User: What shape does this take?
Amino acid sequence: MPASRLLILCWAALVTLSVCTVLLAHAGASLSIAILLVAVGKAWLIADGFMELRRAPRLWRRLMLSWALVLALLVGLTLALSR
Assistant: This one.
C-alpha cells in the first residue's frame, strides 16, 4: 500500500475515533473507560501510522506504544479510586 494511502486511512481512522470520543463523552461519565480505550487506540494510530514506528527498532516502538497504556492505566486507576 502506498504511503500516502496509508496516511489517509490513518487520518480517517483518527477522525472516526475523535467523533467516537465526543459521542462517548456526551453519553455520560460511566463510559470513561471506553474513552480511555479510544485514546489509547488513537495514540497507537499516531505512533504506528504517522510516526511510522512500524519500521523502527522494537525498543523504540514498544516505548512509544507503552506510554499511552501506562498513562491510561494511571488515569483509570485515579478514576476508580475517586469513586
About this structure: The mean pLDDT is 90. The first helix runs from residue 3 to 27. The radius of gyration is 15 Å. The helical segments are 3-27, 32-50, 58-82.
